[in-house]
Every structure is written in C-alpha cells, then in structure tokens.
Amino acid sequence: MAWLRRNLVIIVGILVMIYILLPNLVVIIFSFNKPLGRYNYQWNEFSFDAWTNVCGVPGMCQSVGLSLQIGLIASLTAAVLGTMVAFALGRYRFRGRSGTNLLIFLPMATPEVVMGSSLLTLFIAMGIPTGRTTILIAHIMFCLSFVVVTVKARVASLDPRLEQAAADLYANEFQTFRKVTLPLVLPGIAAGTLLAFSLSFDDYIITNFNASPESVTFPMYVWGAAQRGTPVQINVIGTVMFLGALAVVVIGQVVSSRRNRKVA
Amino acid sequence: MAVTTLTGAPVAAPRRARRGAAVPYLLLVPGLLWLVVFFVVPMVSLASQSLQTGDVDNGYTMTWNFATYADALSTYWPQLLRSLIYAGIATLLTLALGYPLAWFIAHRSGRYKNFLLVLVIAPFFTSFLIRTLAWQTILGDSGLLAQIALRTHTDFLLTGFKEGLKAVGLINNDQLLFSPFAVICGLTYNFLPFMVLPLYSNLERLDHRLVEAAGDLYASPVQAFRRVIWPLSLPGVVAGTLLTFIPAAGDYINSVLLGSTRTVMIGQVIDAQFLRVLDYPTAAALSFILMLIIVAFVITYVRRAGTEELV
C-alpha cells in the first residue's frame, strides 16, 4: 500500500503515456493489415501489400506530394518572415511593441474554424478563386506566429557579451551577425521551421475552407477517404511520417549533445 | 520586458537605437503586413459578411442586418453550448491526466526525461486525422478495447464501464463509438500534449525545497499540493487550459469522425453553412460569435488567474 502511494504518480503517468501513444501504435500495426472490406478497422491478416504498393490507391500520392510542396514553401516563407519579426521583438525597443506582440499572439488564440472561414469571406469578397495559392497564403499566416515565438525565445536567451566580444575583435555588424548571432540562433530557426512544416502538413480545417476540388492535400484526402472506406496505404504514410519525424528528432538530439560536449 | 541573462547581464536591447531607428520596423513590415492582410482584414471581412443580406448568385449588400445573429443563435445555440461543454470537459480531463504526467516527467523520470518528452510530442508526427481515425479502431464494437476485454476475460469491467457512461448520458446505447463519450475521449487525447508541455515547463522549475519545507512544517502531502505546488503551477495551468480549450471548442474533426448527428459541434455547423448550404451571413455570424466567446473567455480567465505570463 505504501509502495503504491509512493509510486502512484509514476503509475498514472505511465497509463497516460499509453493513452497518448496507443493510436500511433494502432496506426503502425494496422498498416500491416489486409482488411476484409473497405474499412480498415478490424484485424484480419498480416500482409505487406500496402507497403509494397503505397501509391496503389488513386489520388493519395498526389495529395501527399501537394502537402509536401505546400508544407515546404509555407514553412520556409514563414521561417524568413517570422525570424525577422523575432529579431525585431527580441532586439529592439520601439513604439508599437506590445501591439506587435498581441498581433502575433492572436492567431494562436483563434480557433481554426474562425481563421479558415474569415479568410474564405475575404477571398469571396475579393473574387479570388480558392486553390493552391490560397492554401499557401493561409498556411504562411498561421505558421508565422509559431516561428516568431520559437525564434524569439532563442534570441532572448543569447548572451550579448558574445556579440560584444566579436565587435571588440574588429568584426563589423554584418560579420558579427553572420559568424556569431546567426549560428547561435539557428537551432531556434530550425525548430520553428520544423514546427511550421508539421503544422502545415497536418492542417485540415483551415485548408478545407480555402481549397478547391483540384487542390486536395493529404489531410483532405484522408477526410474524404474516411467517409467511403480508408485504404491501408493511409496507415503506411502515417507510419512513415511518424518514424521519419522521430528520426529527425533523435538525430537533432545527438547532434546538439555532441556540439555541447565539444564546447564544454 | 526586462530581459536579463542568467548572469544578470542586461540584454543590449536599446543598442543601435539612434542610428538604426528604422531597422526594427523594416524587419517587422513583411511579417506584420502578412498578418494584417490575411488575419486582421479577414476578421473585418467576416464581421461585414455577417451583417450583409443577399445570396450567392445575386451577390450581397451591406444592410446591417443584426437579425442574422439572433436567428443564428436561436437556431444553433444547442450546438454552440455543446461545443463549450465538450471542450470544457475535455480541458478538465486533460488537466487531470496531464498534471500527474507532467509531474512524473519533471521530477520522477530521471535520465528518461528527454525520451519521455519526445514521446509526448511524438503523436504530432502522425496526421491528426489518421490518429483520430485510429480511435474508431480502438473503440469500435469489435474493436481493440472489446477484443482485449474478451481475450483477458475482463469484459465485465467493460460492461460496467459502459453502464456508468450510460448512467451519466455519455453513451446512448451499448456502443462506445459515435457517442459523446467518443468525441470527448478524442478531444482529450488530441489536445493532451498542449496541456502537458506548458505544465511540464512550469513544474520543472519548481524548487523542491519548498515542498520539503511544507513537509517540515507538518503539511500532509495533500496540503503541500494545495497550498504550495498548485498555486505555484498556476501559470502553467492557465497556459495549458487556454491551449486546450480554444482549439477544442472550434474543432469538428473529432465530432465528425467519432460522433453522431447528436454530437454536432459548432465548427461542423460553420463548415456546413459555408461550404455546403452556402449561407454565408449565418456562417459568418456563427464564426464571429465563437470568436467573441473565446476572446471574452481568455480575457476574464487570464485576469482572474492573475497571470500575464503566457506560454
């Protein structure tokens, strides 16, 4: 009893961890299923069919391609714009600073359905047809704030004496920025860009409001498939995404711990 | 914002202030312009659309038709209320589940801390929709949960669980899936990491000596939690509840994939009115009402909790 009380928080923690990870496990396991009907909900038979024939379902791989393309352009654009804003906020005192902070915070505190629908009313009012471009505009908009917040934290934690040291060693402002500031802030920019990419790649609600039948992203494809029977290949894409992202994180951890050891 | 480094050296914020007074504005312009044109202007456009009359074929004219709001509210208040209730329950559940997990990771996980943190964000690596669909596999009538209960001869537990859910009205028949329970379960699951991460970063900074001091002063563990740990963790709790409640209130992926016609949430109505019914004024009015409720909630909540520090 005493043991249980002492370790209660660990037991609950592990149970919650299971709750968090169970769906991912199900996605991976069911990517090896050979379902009886159109719905991949019941375990039937082990098979590699979906893995050897990923693009076998019409439209899916095109939608993954579109999502990758949009995710890449949106996250890189948001990274550039967001990093600039983060430097302005982290480095300078200026009029309208708190207003800027509010403008950055608001998109993160707005439900997706409101952002998606309000953008749609703008596009309707302006007579702009929805499609790939409008999806990109929307994605850059909602990714921007997340990049700013991530990079700003990194800029704020910089030790200003490093830059002063560079200046003392006759580096001009541009050299200081390129050789000292940028390398130090880069991990923050990388984290912000990755976050933006995953938000963009995964977004359904905002995208759905600003897309056309010709511009079907992967989440839109999954949504459509959910109504008429989900192909196993969706689970394969889910598993690949999961393992790929996990690999990126693990490599990032190893690289940064190596770097830290070298510095120390 | 007085930013100082750990060593107490002030960050050189006002540097270059005179010569480069235009620099911060030049850095801000592209990003802020994007947010103004594609976030602020659309909000104005949304408000304006909600007050116009007309139809898709003949166009809309501004008539300051506030009746749309009254009509939208009187027709769709059940869905609106349901969204707030579901999001509220899900937020409380994420807090109840996320707090022990955050504490466990922050103070009891030892060298597995980073590994566990990666596992908490790991679900984000797989599409939101695919993971929500996985709950269909888990909760279905002959799904994973039912299979496990059957194989381990614990179906009496599952039956008891269902009876309990039925008693509080969270399921209507013997089905776990396509019920309020499934929707709330999905919402809780999907937004749990948004609760755990701010709680973790708060609890990690907690000075353990404060808890020991409470013990030395004869506080029971419960008292120590109530009087010391909980008040100190409030900023994390506030950030976590906002990050959970706001997206959950507008979400309709869970209610569509895991719910039924009796669990329709407001996002679903807005989506249908905009994209299928094509009744733009009603859709815009509902969207604007949701936004107003959220803003009112955030302001009163942050004020009452007395914290300015967000995330």
Automatic annotation (TrEMBL), chain A:
Quick one: a GO biological-process term for this protein?
A: transmembrane transport
**One Gene Ontology cellular component annotation held by this UniProt entry:** plasma membrane
Taking the record's annotation, the residue ranges forming a coiled coil are: none
Q: Which Pfam families match?
A: BPD_transp_1 (PF00528)
Q: Which family does it belong to?
A: Belongs to the binding-protein-dependent transport system permease family. CysTW subfamily.
Compartments, as annotated in UniProt = Cell membrane
InterPro entries the UniProt entry points to: Bact_Polyamine_Transport, MetI-like, MetI-like_sf
From which source organism is this entry? Intrasporangium oryzae NRRL B-24470
Q: For the ABC transmembrane type-1 domain, which residue ranges apply?
A: 64-252
> By what name is this protein known?
ABC transporter permease
